[in-house]
Design a protein that fits this description.
With 178 residues, the chain is α+β, with helices and mostly antiparallel strands. 42% of the residues lie in helices and 29% in strands. It contains five helices and seven strands, in the order αβαβαβββαββα.
Length: 178
């Protein structure tokens, strides 16, 4: 019993130190979004959650794989995010893991996103879900879908940049002769 208490105290101290350093803790990232889309602009949005969802997020359980956002009736909604129910939730504390969730953003920003996504072929894609100062946030991107040849071109430029930085690093390490 004493060992468990010591472990709990150490865990709480580590959490306090992390909160003192800035408190940002990433829960989930959508790595596929950066591959499939050209990111034009990013926004930080609040998200409306139920109690069990917050506790489940604090445990680091969420999936953004097929998620997207859409403006409906002047409000911004997030679809396709899977947040599993908290393991200790019962009765009214249980929520639908795949329900749509409301995103919180200023009215001007919502109107701007609505105009851009309707006029041009742009999509709203969540990039990451994280905690900032104890509040759950979503990093939302205004993005344009990439075609297959665009993806290949992006991979080629990324590999060329890596090769150039590797050559510069080797030249710096071994001198001009290497």
């Amino acid at each position: 019993m004493v060992a468990r208490a010591k472990k709990t105290v150490a865990k709480r101290a580590a959490a306090r130190e992390a909160a003192a350093r800035g408190g940002d803790r990433t829960v989930a990232t959508n790595r596929r979004a950066r591959h499939d889309y050209d990111i034009l602009e990013t926004y930080e949005c609040g998200i409306v959650l139920h109690g069990g969802e917050v506790k489940s997020l604090r445990e680091g359980k969420a999936q953004l794989a097929d998620a997207y956002a859409r403006v409906d009736a002047g409000e911004l909604w997030l679809f396709g995010v899977h947040i599993p129910p908290w393991q200790y939730a019962t009765g009214f504390g249980v929520h639908d893991p795949d329900r749509k969730r409301k995103l919180l953003l200023h009215r001007k920003e919502i109107d701007e996103l609505m105009g851009l996504s309707q006029q041009q072929a742009l999509t709203l894609v969540p990039l990451s879900l994280y905690f900032r100062d104890g509040k759950a946030k979503v990093q939302l991107a205004l993005a344009r879908g990439r075609k297959l040849h665009d993806k290949r071109q992006a991979i080629l430029t990324r590999e060329a940049d890596r090769e150039a930085s590797r050559a510069a690093r080797n030249a710096e390490r071994w001198g001009a002769a290497g």
